[in-house]
Prior knowledge:
Radius of gyration of chain B: 17 Å
Strand content of chain A: 15-25%
Distance between the termini of chain B: 40 Å
Largest sheet of chain A: 7 strands, parallel
Strand order of the largest sheet of chain B: 2-1-3-4-14-13
Shape of chain B: globular
Distance between the termini of chain A: 45 Å
Number of strands of chain B: 14
Order of helices and strands of chain A: HHHEHEHEHEHHEHEEHHEEHEEHEHEH
Oligomer: heterodimer
Structural class of chain A: alpha/beta
Number of strands of chain A: 13
Helix content of chain A: 25-40%
Amino acid sequence: MRLTLARLAGALAGFASRTAGRGRGETLRGRVTLAVDPDALRKLARKRDIVLVSGTNGKTTTTALLAKILAEGTGEPVATSVHGANMLAGVASVLSSRPGHRLAVIECDELYLPQVYRDVAPKVVVLLNLSRDQLHRTGEVRKVAQLWHDTFTSDDVSLIIDRDDPFLEFAAARAGHVIRVTFGGRRHPDAATCPACARIMDWSTGDYRCECGLGSATATVRGDRSLSGPGRNAVLAVEAARLMGAAIDAAAAVALAQHPPDRRAVHQIDGVAVDTRLAKNPASWRGALESCTSPAVILAVNARGIDGRDTSWLWDVDFGTLRGRTVVCTGDRRLDVAYRLHVQGIGVSVAESVAAAVAAAGPNVTAIASYTAFQDLAAADLGISQRSGGRP
Amino acid sequence: MTLTIVRLYHDLLSTYGDQGNAEVLVHRAAARGMAVSLLEVTPDDAVPTSGDIYLLGGGEDGPQSVALDLLAKDGGLNQAAQAGATVFAVCAGFQIIGASLPGAGGLIVDGLGLVDAVTQYDARPRSVGEVVVRYRGDMTEPLLTGFENHQGVTRISPAMAPLGDVLRGVGNGLDDTDGWSGVEGVHHGNVFGTYMHGPALARNPQLADAVLESAVGPLADFDDAWAEAFAAERRATLWR
């Protein structure tokens, strides 16, 4: 009874929020539902088969891809997260809005994963990757890995992990069921020392081994070494969909990994098609720079809450591939970016607004943007002027 | 003469982009026509004793303990510092050069003892956020800015001068009577310690020059418009 009231109140709040034009309403809906019935998450998850997706990079796109191939492969509808709402309220909203769907694929924030895991009792948890991100909020990478290590201690869930990431291998070390996917190993920039025992690890083969035994467990699935980050995430999504009952043939699996969806959009700004990629931390910036070949590039960086308030990570990224190209820096922290590139010997200019940056960059342009800067570019597409005064 | 900058253990101590300090020093020294060599020291290498400037960055607790063990056993950094080399140490690196700090498992262990500073962890939440510091020395532009993110509280002895006085943020934290010390970092001879990331020498070109001058003496003027614009924007946004 209480749950019914909670769901109704949540739905009304979400509807009111949308009608009032105040965002999409998912988070508010979930928040109200949980306020009326604090136990709602556990009740809403009963008798359902749930997959949780977490990690530093690729949660939203991988969740969307997994929901899509799971629905296609089973012929059943799948409840899933939308717009990256991935904390408690977002999770409650997904389950509350689709009460009749047995299958659910849910994106979960790294720090909320332990609580969501305990409340919704998922069948499968997909762990994509862990690297430095929003250090002001999550603290150290090792602390997140330890939190997960202390969470997955039973045999009532199956984990699917990229075992090439030593933090994930450590996170899964006490779990009963682990499907390990390997792509042949690659150096993790934050893992010189072992997440389990703190010894210096041996990376001489391009893969890691530690005296304590971390890294010695055999992988179940071998993926193509040359895959991009989104491609590797797609391989994990295919494995999860198969475990949940989707029929996906080998050719389709390869195609998904070779051409994975990515967090990008093409925005029309003042008559210019701006190919825009979201990049949130050093690992995703490296990925975005690798795939960016246009003669002009806009780098848009803010440091508002969700972006991470500390911009030091700019110095963890090598911008060398931009040398000789037209580079325009914009966003609240354009001078941080400009100086970082200047020290690397790359010529830059700065622009105070998205429109000015597009005008300076010319017609053949890619934009790489931090989270809120990505939203500013989308707003410029809609003809809404860039938010000003958002000083960090 | 070639200016030799030694960056210690990038893989262990570089959590917050602190290697940018090395890039900035190289950039500003080269702009003055100096020949500069940047030596990367890994855990497999002996620490050279002939460097002019040694850089230590921030790191997570585990790697910090490993780095401290390596440096204590090697002895090269202490030898160089005693001979007058410049040391610029940030966050975990700042804690490492002190007299004692929490080691593996939280037990207090001896630091390298380059400065008389004692670090302890307490129950307070991590100190995270922008910092503004008024540099203790004579500088045309005495305001420094950075971003701190640390658990430790570091008490420097009365014989040590801090890097500066805190105008915004936490800095070293509490003093001996558990009141706010109101100071940030340490500056003892040619040894600099600070909690400021940013990286600190990118956000504060005048501090980068102070570090260079401690190694090579007075510098020629170098007006880098991008560096000055960035530093001025940070000061304006955070303080004035």
